[in-house]
Design goal:
Elements: H1 7-27, E1 28-31, E2 35-41, E3 46-47, E4 56-59, E5 65-70, E6 74-83, E7 89-100, H2 105-111, H3 116-133, H4 138-144, H5 146-161, E8 168-179, H6 182-232, H7 235-250, E9 257-259, E10 270-272
Antiparallel strand pairs: 1-4, 2-3, 2-5, 6-7, 7-8, 9-10
Helix pairs in contact: 3-5
Length: 274
């Protein structure tokens, strides 16, 4: 058998394999479980925003481009200086958690490209932080209304990021730290301590007032009861109770003679149990 006849075929096959291997990165791509992708068709429809490529192994034409987005939850931490309601500078460290809408990554690519975090999320978060904190005093941000401030920033940021065209879901917002000038911070802490002491003092006063009121009501009730008892103690009742007590006392095995007083009331002077 003349192997020279097969040589051209072997060369063609080898060249084909070489081309396939060389173009493999342009022909094949894999989408991970926390990723989604859209394809840009260079010679036809352009960016296919509505056809979302899911996880798995895929094939494409080498001239088309694939844009892959991480659709898992992302986190951004920012440190910034803001002005409070009174114009006082406050340094804050914040964290925001978010995720792109998986079904809308084509629109994110069209508007912001894959750089949507730095071009959309961070600027909007910083803007909301400044706007919301500008409505509160440093004391409120630092202590009394911190959770309210966090909630307002999250709500307003979520509204902006979720608008049509932005397509980002806000998950959480947290103020990690608030840094005030030392004198302002000390003044706020002193005020809070004084307020706590005043509340504790008022609590003691209210407690003592309640106790005094309780004693007054108890005394009035006892006086009223004594008044009722005294008004019911007539001579006839006292005489009857005296006779009943004398009879009961005479039944005692240790009593033989009982002296109860004079006889003007009609009671016996001596009751002998022998």
């Amino acid at each position: 058998m003349d192997n020279r006849k097969f040589l051209p075929f072997l060369v063609i096959i080898a060249f084909g394999l070489f081309v396939i291997v060389g173009l493999s990165s342009s022909l094949f791509y894999t989408i991970g479980p926390a990723e989604r992708a859209v394809v840009f068709y260079k010679f036809s429809d352009g960016l296919d925003k509505n056809n979302i490529i899911g996880p798995g192994f895929h094939v494409k034409a080498p001239w088309n481009s694939v844009y892959v987005f991480d659709v898992s939850e992302n986190k951004v931490e920012e440190s910034m200086d803001v002005l409070d309601k009174n114009g006082l500078s406050v340094s804050v460290d914040v964290s925001v958690r978010f995720t792109p809408m998986p079904s809308k990554i084509g629109y994110l690519q069209e508007t912001f490209q894959k750089d949507y975090i730095s071009r959309l999320v961070i600027p909007e978060v910083r803007s909301s932080v400044r706007q919301v904190m500008g409505r509160y005093t440093a004391e409120e941000i630092y202590s009394t209304k911190r959770s309210e401030v966090e909630g307002a920033i999250k709500s307003e940021t979520a509204e902006v990021l979720g608008e049509e065209g932005n397509n980002v879901i806000m998950k959480a917002f947290l103020i990690r730290a608030i840094n005030l000038p030392a004198q302002i911070k000390q003044a706020i802490e002193n005020k809070l301590q004084q307020e706590q002491e005043a509340l504790a003092y008022q609590f003691r006063l209210d407690k003592e007032k309640s106790e005094a009121e309780r004693k007054r009501i108890a005394a009035e009730g006892e006086a009223a009861a004594n008044k009722i008892i005294n008004s019911s103690l007539t001579d006839e009742l006292l005489k009857m109770r005296g006779i009943e007590a004398t009879i009961e006392l005479s039944k005692s095995p240790n009593s033989k003679v009982v002296v109860i007083g004079g006889g003007d009331e009609g009671l016996p002077l001596i009751l002998n149990n022998n």
